[in-house]
Amino acid sequence: MKRIYKAHLLFTKERSRFEVLENSYIAVENGCIVGVASDLSSLDYKSAEITDFGDCLLIPAMNDLHVHAPQYRNQGMAMDLELLPWLQNYTFPEEMKYADLHYADSLYRRFVFDLWRFGTMRACVFATVHTDSTRLLMHIFQEAGMGALVGKVGMNRNCPTELTESVEDMTQGCESLIEEFPQFYAQNSQPPTPLVRPIITPRFVPSCTPEMLRACGELAVRYQLPVQSHLSENKDEIAWVQALEPESSCYGDAYDRYGLFGQTPTVMAHCVWTDGEELELMKRRGVMVAHCPTSNLNLASGMAPIRKFLEKGLDVGLGSDISGGHNLSIFKVMVYAIQTSKMYYQQNQEMTFLTLPEVFWMATKSAGSFFGHVGSFEPGYEFDALVIDDSNLNFNNYSLLERLERYIYLGDDRQITHRFCRGREIKMQ
Amino acid sequence: MKRIYKAHLLFTKERSRFEVLENSYIAVENGCIVGVASDLSSLDYKSAEITDFGDCLLIPAMNDLHVHAPQYRNQGMAMDLELLPWLQNYTFPEEMKYADLHYADSLYRRFVFDLWRFGTMRACVFATVHTDSTRLLMHIFQEAGMGALVGKVGMNRNCPTELTESVEDMTQGCESLIEEFPQFYAQNSQPPTPLVRPIITPRFVPSCTPEMLRACGELAVRYQLPVQSHLSENKDEIAWVQALEPESSCYGDAYDRYGLFGQTPTVMAHCVWTDGEELELMKRRGVMVAHCPTSNLNLASGMAPIRKFLEKGLDVGLGSDISGGHNLSIFKVMVYAIQTSKMYYQQNQEMTFLTLPEVFWMATKSAGSFFGHVGSFEPGYEFDALVIDDSNLNFNNYSLLERLERYIYLGDDRQITHRFCRGREIKMQ
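Above: the input entities. Below: the structure tokens describing the complete assembly.
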């Protein structure tokens, strides 16, 4: 069944500018976009059901490249410490609670609902070490019809006993999830890649012994699974990694030597202090950056040099990083990405600050590439989209681009009237 | 008629910590707080009407120390330039439209409604050069029952002809407003100081000839009116002021020599680059800082050294600075104030970052002091308050302080169920 949607289309085919198609049409079949046009007649529309969203904006849905589902309870609080003591004092105690499936069920459902509310249809998610509650989270995403790469977290040192797991248990737990959730990782697979899949997730080097890192790398390669972790977020953390892995030439190299740095598709969160050799290695290995500016401010980590990454040709997406970040809306993370880059520019004028199309592109087409053909309105892309009714913000003859900018800066969940993931409208409550 | 309100009371009597009174009572008479207690019996409650807000939080209302009402249309857009070209390209063209009373009426009503929506009950407001639309804005505040110091803006150089006014016309326009709106500026006046009053408002040194600045200073002293302007926001601006007023030892001195720097109560917005002699002069003259972190990020101005100001004993409040700032909610400005201070700290570890009680105190008791006894729940203070029903955020046994922190980080206008200004409940629509 072909469907055609009419609205004002705004998206970023390229990094540096918006495509703006006023009163235009998108044709969708089997979850994928089969045509985009300003006049209906140029589409094969005879058998299609047409939905007219009137004066609304239609934009690609948001992708969150880095978020900790079990930190949802701590969102918007406990912001008085830097990364390492913050983990010990606030984060680990909360994650321990996810041994309790009942607790996990209640909080994970709220978390997924809130992702949906703010228009995020795909996410790279850290769960906890607990296999059962990780499975539960994957089921919740699956029931919702939203896309997620969900990681059972590997950790076995420098953390509370309750969050420590043996390498064998980690491997076994991961394999049981891999068996249950088909893991085929390919962009043009037939049948289509499942929406919810496992992702190999060593927490970060300080939490993982070399054996744990090696086992994670082996799982990734054996099952051709993507990898996510944290990289160069905080100066104390980097010094600690250097002490723990003295033979590594940089933090990134400590992943690379265990097959966790681009051997399969890899996304690393933060990269605040990535430079020199580590930057070169990321480029060489095609490792993607999950830029989390809200978190980097809240935990006083620093300002990631995103302009430098882009000029180097690195792929960059955005992450909310709940609960280091407080804002689950990727629209607000875009605002923070621009603002942080302005502070960076203020101190390094050769690094021009990020523009609105650039951060929009990061959140949509660039981040979306980690999930397949996701994040743009081009034929062959999966139809992940949001309908924005911004009439309460649009009271004074704004252009379509001004309307989008104002929605990003001023809007919230109230203006999102419809959400689509892989062609299907996702409704909740 | 005495009224008593029951709820969880949270406020900052001192800068460094919250007062948290669970299930407690505030007694209000003639707009002022006459008693605060945890048990009703300790208040004289016999003749009082008691309102129970149940499990809601009751906090002081927000004060916005720096906002441009005629830039409301540009809120959340046009963020691609630094201060000086931004003024020329976006701000001045918009302000010109306020020669049209019809336009002003439509936009100013929306602006005041939005201030109300986000819980700001008092504001220091820049209008435009236009006397009639400035008067209109004052009437709108007066009708609403909200507090505002509103400035007809003085400007006569380096700006479009349409926004230029002669010194005589500026003086005459101000005097007509002063006549219409009683200007008596005293904290314990009987009858109480009017809620809406004029404030002397030279735009900033580059927009005002020495004659204009002198005339503004004379008006302030003659009518004992407060003063507001901009100070040391941007490096190019500072260099320009130095070129325009070469005999001034610093930007602040260029105001001081015309009687506009603490000769009457004065608030200066930004102070991003204030240091050394200017800082000393502000301290000596008791000039207050309106810290506008959102704007300072959006216009790539820099990070104001607020910890240094506090240690020096300067008074600091918060400002939204619409439309340099995009966020009219002072709660969100608090978040940005903490985040900016964390970036400052990240680069200057001796300057510890701002805490939640500190920014709350800035937005309430500290900023409130510019309007009288406003911003705290202490006997003798005017009852400016917000009722926060955060039940949708409070799903997991949070403490009262955690609930407040989460509201500040995650909440919006939807959780504000009642707003009070000087004891009166302010309702709109």
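Note for the figure: The two ends of chain A are 26 Å apart (CA to CA).
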